[in-house]
Design goal:
It is a single chain. With 55 residues, the chain is mostly helical. It has one domain. The longest helix is centred in the C-terminal third of the chain and has 20 residues.
Length: 55
């Protein structure tokens, strides 16, 4: 998985969760912050498709 592609499976999802944890304290405007934002979007998109909560 690269940060520029969608998460394809649960293994990549778990890896993304681990990676984003390392970026939680990234300073705004840094490369790490950019990576955090991209990972957060990818994780949210995967969650929306594969981990829907009952409404």
């Amino acid at each position: 998985m690269t940060i520029d592609t969608a998460i394809k499976n649960d293994q990549e999802y778990e890896a993304a969760l681990e990676a984003i944890e390392q970026l939680l304290e990234a300073e705004p405007g840094t490369l790490e912050d950019e990576k955090f934002e991209k990972l957060a979007k990818m994780i949210a998109e995967y969650d929306d498709i594969h981990h829907k909560l009952n409404e």
